[in-house]
Please model this.
Amino acid sequence: MDSMQFDPSLYLAEADLPGDAVPPDLLILNQPIASFEIFARLWKHSIYRICADGGANRLYDMFKGPLEVRRVAFLPDAIHGDLDSLREDVRSYYTSHGVVATQDHDQYSTDFGKAMGKISTRQSPSPRREILVLGTLAGRVDQGLGLLHEMIREETEHPHFRLWLFSESSVSFILRSTNNLIQGTSSSRMFTPNVGLLPIYGPAIISTTGLEWDVKVWDTQMGYQVSTSNHVVAEEIQVRTNAPILFTIERAELPEEGIAK
Model:
C-alpha cells in the first residue's frame, strides 16, 4: 500500500455519497452520542449498522422527548457483544422489531472487537471496507487509548479495512500508507482548521504540505516532538510517513446542531 486518499467530509454531508464511494458500515459504541445530527448523517450514508452491546442503550436513549416517535426509523441490523451492558427494556424493544441480538462470551476481546468480528464476516460488495465508529475519547483515559489501540489492531489484521472515529468534536483516522492525500476539509466547511498528527503507534518520520507549520523529513515520537494544534491552510493536505500515525481534525458545528441547543 503506497498511497491513500481520505475525504472525511463525505460522511458528514447532507448529499448522498458519490456513485464511486464505498458505502460504509456503522459501529455504535457504548458511549454518549453527542450530536443527533452527526449520528443521523452517518446512519444515512451507511448500509449496515451494528451496536456493540450497550451501544444499543445509547441508541435507544437518544430518542427521548420529541425524538421518541423517530426511534422506530433507526433500527440497527444487529446488536452484538457479551451483552452484559444491554438493558432488558432495550433488548425487548429491538428484538420485538426484528433486530437480532447475539452474544459472544469471549473474555479476551472487547465488545468493540466482537462487533468488528461480526462486521468482518458480513459479505460486502467491495473488497475495501469503510467503517464509521461512533464513539468518544472523553471520559476514562484508559478506554480512550484502548479505542485507538483497537483501531490500529483491526486495520493491521484486516488491511482492507479503514476505520473512521467520529468522536464528540473530531474525526480521526490512521495514515498507514507512505503517501496520504486528505481532501474536503476546507471547502466542505464541516471542519475547523485545527488538526493534529500524532505518532501514538510508535516513532515516525513525516513530511507535510498544506499545513500552517509544514515539516520535512521530521522525526516525531511521543515524549520527543509531535505536531498538535496545527492548522489547515490548503484544500489538500499531503502527508508522507514511514509508519502509522493518527490524523485528527476538529469538526465544525453543523447549523442544525446550533439550532438544537
In short: Helices lie at 36-45, 55-62, 88-96, 111-121, 141-157, 255-260. The chain has two domains: 7-168, 170-253. The mean pLDDT is 94. The two ends are 43 Å apart (CA to CA).
